[in-house]
Design a protein that fits this description.
Elements lengths: L2 E4 L4 E4 L13 H4 L4 H11 L5 H10 L2 H4 L4 H4 L9 E3 L6 E6 L2 E9 L1 H6 L1 H17 L4 E11 L5 H21 L3 E8 L8 E11 L14 E6 L9 H4 L20 H16 L5 E4 L4 H13 L2 E5 L12 H6 L5 E6 L4 H10 L3 E9 L3 E6 L2 E7 H5 L14 H5 L6 H4 L12 E2 L9 E2 L1 H10 L7 H4 L10 E3 L7 E5 L6 E8 L2 H6 L1 H18 L3 E10 L6 H21 L3 E7 L3 E2 L2 E2 L3 E10 L16 E6 L15 H6 L13 H16 L5 E4 L4 H19 L8 E5 L8 H6 L5 E6 L3 H13 L3 E8 L3 E6 L16 E7 H8 L9
Parallel strand pairs: 6-7, 11-14, 21-22, 28-31
Antiparallel strand pairs: 1-2, 3-4, 4-5, 5-8, 6-8, 9-12, 9-13, 10-12, 11-13, 14-15, 16-17, 18-19, 19-20, 20-25, 21-25, 23-24, 26-29, 26-30, 27-29, 28-30, 31-32
């Protein structure tokens, strides 16, 4: 018999007979991420010991990354059904009906661990992998978004990772011809040892061409298309299922190397195969390579597969069956086809310069059989790999730290003392520790917030991305709260909006509230550009699920996300769980990231955040009054992060989901009426930062249009709620607020009529001026709230020039200005 040797595992065994290993020797299953109990279960299921290849197959498919063994039960809480959902969780991507004959496939994936070790290739292959997930549905990839988290940019290692990840996304996405149209970037010490790289891809498909990844039809063949197979990425799935430690740098071979030009050819060839009806099913080769793709397609099809290893095109000599079956070489797809269609498929692939090799066939015995020169070197029932994956229900316990953070006032001097201070631009104490107090005027606070890395412009990143390739992008990065694509395939009658959102600080302080807030903000951002939120994908980034406190965070976040998804009518179509995001510094903040899809039938009415001309009125819609507990507005806020070295403290403001739904519905009615000229969500940094961002967006738009020296400003009067201090109104953070710009006169009157009819709280906030100055005023009668129908009395509080604000906002986090 052929002897199979896998030097990485340090085990040699007869490829056709059980390997004679045990706890008293090398226990190879431990090195592959399996526990002793899991190995015992494998032996029980097989009725014998697995050989080296079979053990590797179990190890990757029973890994956390592939098997979801700690999360599967908790994920069942998500609402996944809706009339718009064509394909839900369990496939390569969710698919949503957007009307007429078209559907959208979208999904989000993580590549966190690879980015910590090899930032450029980790990010690049993350982009490539999620593109292929969309391609496997038969959809053309039309856009990418990325949600990134890094340690402080002042730390050299964090700066190196951040630069490398952004360059990797740009390097792959630009070359493959899929635009990167949006996303988010945040910095916090919690991610210094373990960055997060979550990538979302969306594809467009005609519903009749929807393809499923199922190996059906006994006698059909398995065709491997694309890149030759090498030794890169072996056990990448296992690597993604463990914590990062001091030895992680030695695992660079687990990080794959991508070729975006090959991926572009793969996209075009696979789409042609789908369009000509030549494929029974298509599956990406991602984590666990051939092993995963063959097992998953056979599992979905209720069939077996018989694969011949030497038929796999290999770019390295001397590869063993183990290496071939577990390789995670990139740019490969598996096509299930009828034998008579093989010549046509090969002709398409060769024309696109791609390999296409028949490597196996679909069988009716339910077995995953691996052959090497005709001899069976591995044979496992498919269901053992796909259906018998261990499913755990770990202990969940509320973290001990919450007893401390809940009792701590977020920023006591802001929440309490400053409210009684004179309403002028005098210095104010902004932290609760007298010995560490910071004195700052509100003007200085605004400039510091605009310059903080999480709030400041991300132009340093998105200027590296090609965000207009394919010519569908209507709202560019930085110009609105969500990206907007106009679908020319629909005769320009349809547009889709996309946003990603998540806030680890808020989830750290209250995972359930944080989960609700992430969904609500993602939906709000999509509504802010004029699209109706219709569905969610997600990426759930957490620490070690075997830690009861972390698993409690996980379950609570899912509960909050589910509550919000149900309330807002946005079912979850799929996503990704990324556990073991820990390093020697500890676990990351619990960070569920939501990818929201919205759709509009009037993309011509959609708008970004930039007001267009002087005289436009600014209206504040939604939760005009702050939460019942004013101190909640500082918990997990940007101001707290800026001024406190103690980490997040307090309890964050919760979202009123009924109010949130009414806000979004009313905003969309304003869009339908054609009265919205700009809209922007109030989030990080509060109201003052939101207004400044709108003006900066207008200045950037005017600059790009060659309009000369930007001259728009704003004159804003803060709400007059006497419970809240001026600083609270200006910089406090609570959900369900949107600033809308409308033209004066008839448009304003129509907007007011719609708002009054809706019952949604709102006030007149101010107007756009012709001076490049941002002025904040206080109501002269601070003891009463201005009525919706009139501008409040005014007492000037502070002003900031647009030039100062723009300069602060444009500061590059690594020490240069863009």
């Amino acid at each position: 018999m052929t002897r199979v040797v896998h030097t990485q595992a340090g085990v040699a065994g007869d490829s056709g007979a059980p390997a004679r290993t045990g706890l008293q020797t090398e226990a190879p299953w431990r090195r592959q991420g399996l526990t002793d109990a899991e190995y015992a279960r494998i032996v029980e299921l097989l009725g014998r010991h697995p050989n080296e290849l079979e053990l590797g197959m179990f190890a990757v498919l029973w890994s956390e990354h592939c098997g979801y063994k700690h999360s599967k039960r908790a994920l069942r809480r998500f609402p996944t059904r809706g009339p718009q959902v064509l394909v839900g969780p369990g496939e390569n991507a969710g698919v949503v009906d957007i009307g007429e004959s078209f559907a959208v496939a979208f999904r989000m994936e993580s590549h966190n661990h690879p980015c910590a070790i090899e930032p450029y290739q980790g990010a690049a292959t993350g982009v490539g992998g999620i593109i292929r997930d969309i391609l496997a549905m038969g959809a053309r990839p039309v856009a990418l978004l990325d949600s990134l988290r890094f340690g402080p940019p002042s730390e050299p290692r964090s700066a190196h990772i951040a630069r490398g990840v952004v360059e990797g996304i740009a390097g792959y996405g630009n070359c493959v011809g899929v635009p990167t149209v949006g996303g988010e970037i945040a910095f916090d010490p919690a991610y210094a040892g373990n960055p997060l790289c979550n990538v979302l891809c969306v594809g467009l498909i005609e519903k009749e061409r929807l393809t499923r990844a199922a190996a059906t039809g006994v006698g059909n063949v398995c065709i491997l298309v694309g890149q030759h197979t090498g030794r890169d990425g072996i056990h990448g799935a296992t690597f993604a299922s463990v914590e990062l430690d001091a030895e992680s740098e030695s695992r660079r071979p687990s990080v794959q190397v991508g070729d975006p030009f090959m991926e572009k050819l793969l996209i075009e060839a696979c789409l042609e195969i789908v369009e000509r009806g030549l494929a029974v099913g298509i599956q990406d080769l991602g984590a666990a390579g051939l092993t995963s793709s063959l097992a998953e397609t056979a599992g979905r099809g209720g069939t077996g597969v018989d694969v011949e290893v030497e038929a796999v095109p290999q770019r390295e000599t001397g590869m063993t069956p183990y290496e071939v079956m577990l390789s995670e070489s990139q740019e490969r797809m598996l096509v299930i086809a009828r034998p008579e269609n093989v010549p046509a498929i090969k002709e398409i692939c060769y024309r696109w310069g791609l390999n296409a090799a028949v490597v196996g066939r679909v069988t009716g015995d339910g077995l995953f059989t691996v052959r090497w020169h005709g001899q069976i070197v591995g044979q496992v029932p498919v269901r053992l790999l796909t259906e018998e994956t261990p499913v755990y229900d770990p202990e969940a316990k509320e973290p001990a730290y919450l007893a401390v953070t809940r009792q701590a006032a977020a920023v006591p001097a802001v929440a309490a003392g400053v409210a009684a201070a004179p309403a002028v631009a005098a210095p104010a104490t902004l932290t609760g520790e007298p010995e560490d107090s910071v004195k700052a005027s509100p003007r200085e606070l605004l400039l510091r917030l605009l310059a903080s890395p999480t709030v400041a412009s991300k132009a340093w990143a998105y200027r590296r991305y090609d965000h207009q390739v394919q010519t569908r992008t209507a709202i560019l990065p930085g110009a609105g709260d969500a990206a907007l694509l106009v679908l020319r395939e629909t005769g320009m009658r349809k547009g889709i909006a996309l946003a990603t959102d998540g806030n680890g600080r808020l989830c750290y302080l209250d995972p359930r509230r944080g989960g609700r807030l992430a969904v609500a903000e993602a939906a709000r951002n999509v509504a802010c550009v004029g699209a109706r939120p219709i569905a969610i994908t997600n990426c759930l980034n957490f620490g070690n699920p075997e830690d009861p406190e972390i698993f409690w965070q996980f379950k609570e976040a899912i509960e909050g996300m589910s509550e919000a998804a149900e309330a807002l009518g946005t079912p979850v179509t799929g996503g990704n769980v990324s556990f073991y995001n820990e390093s020697e510094r500890g676990a990351i903040f619990p960070t569920p990231v939501v990818g929201m899809l919205g759709v509009t039938d009037r993309p011509d009415l959609c708008r970004g955040m930039a007001p267009g001309r002087t005289g436009q009125r600014l209206l504040l819609l939604g939760a005009v009054e702050g939460p019942e507990r004013p101190d909640e507005v500082w918990a997990g806020s940007e101001l707290q992060a800026l001024l406190s070295g103690a980490g997040p403290q307090g309890v964050p403001a919760d979202v009123d989901l009924a109010l949130e739904k009414r806000l979004q519905d009313t905003l969309l009615k304003l869009y339908e009426a054609g009265v919205v000229e700009a809209a922007h969500d109030v989030s990080e940094g509060g109201l003052a930062v939101a207004v400044a961002e709108m003006l900066i967006a207008a200045a950037e738009a005017m600059s790009l249009a060659g309009a000369g020296n930007p001259s728009l400003g704003a004159d804003v009067t803060l709400p007059g709620d006497p419970r809240l201090s001026p600083l609270t109104h200006a910089f406090g953070e609570w959900p369900s607020r949107v600033i809308v710009a409308v033209d004066p006169g008839e448009a304003e009157a129509r907007a007011v009529a719609l708002l009054e009819a809706s019952g949604l709280p709102w006030i007149r906030l101010g107007e756009i001026t012709g001076r490049a100055l941002l002025t904040f005023r206080l109501p002269s009668n601070s003891g009463s709230q201005a009525s919706p129908g009139e501008m409040p009395g005014e007492t000037e509080w502070f002003s900031v020039s647009l030039d100062e604000a723009w300069k602060a906002y444009s500061r590059e986090p690594f020490g240069r200005e863009e």
